[in-house]
Design brief:
It is a single chain. With 214 residues, the protein is α+β, with helices and mostly antiparallel strands. It has a domain of 142 residues: Alpha-Beta Plaits (2-Layer Sandwich), CATH 3.30.70. The protein has five helices and eleven strands. Strands 1, 3, 4, 5, 6, 7, 10 and 11 form an eight-stranded antiparallel β-sheet that branches. A three-stranded antiparallel β-sheet has the order 2-9-8, with no helix packed on it. The two termini are 30 Å apart.
Length: 214
């Protein structure tokens, strides 16, 4: 009977996500899949404050025909590393620790592809056209909520929303470093998806659960 060599055994043994020391010794590559728990809202910025977008133009669309609804990977990186706006570390970690965590994610974590397609039944979700504020093909609908600015000044918002069910799948890379372990990243990622989520109006929209991390 053939037996694995020491080298083979080392290759086949999965490295633990938590070690006694801080940081990660070698590059970690994971396939991550998220499953939506709430509808997700979008509000793509046009690049300046003067350009006005139609509601459907606030979606992130990509693919060969420009109809696949996507989430930019930078949205997830902001979820992990933003310090000046709400993020998972800022929401969940001690005020003395979250900045180091955010900086570590910005320095040592990357996510691909650049535009991550939304999936439904393992197929990309494609946008058709809005009729009476609803797209039959994707289920996208328009939310017309009124936010309140300082002193109660109304600020009407018109934004597209993708309803459940939806999933996202992407590749996450954690580079060798002295500050961030994979288990720490997984814990904040998992809890943050419940507490905060992705997209616009996070907390009310865009919540998800991690169903794959391997």
């Amino acid at each position: 009977m053939a037996t694995a060599s020491n080298g083979d055994r080392a290759t086949k043994t999965k490295e633990p996500k938590t070690r006694g020391e801080a940081g990660t010794r070698s590059k970690v590559l994971r396939t991550v899949r998220l499953r939506g728990l709430t509808d997700i809202m979008f509000c793509r910025y046009p690049g300046d404050n003067d350009t006005k977008l139609e509601p459907w133009q606030k979606l992130y669309l990509a693919g060969e025909e420009g109809r696949t609804i996507c989430l930019p990977s930078v949205n997830i990186m902001s979820f992990l590393s933003a310090q000046n706006t709400d993020s998972a570390p800022k929401r969940l970690l001690d005020s003395r620790k979250y900045k180091v965590f955010c900086q570590s994610c910005a320095s040592f974590v990357s996510i691909e592809p650049r535009m991550i397609p939304f999936l439904r039944d393992d197929r990309p979700v494609t946008f058709g056209r809005l009729v009476n504020d609803t797209d039959v093909e994707s289920g996208v609908y328009i939310d017309r909520s009124v936010a309140r600015l300082e002193k109660g000044i109304p600020n009407p918002q018109v934004r597209p929303v993708l309803p459940l069910p939806w999933e996202l799948e992407f590749t996450l890379t954690l580079l060798p470093n002295r500050f961030l372990q994979e288990q720490q990243l997984l814990n904040v990622f998992t809890e943050g998806m419940i507490a905060l989520g992705l997209g616009t109006w996070r907390g009310r929209f865009g919540k998800a659960e991690v169903v794959l991390w391997e």
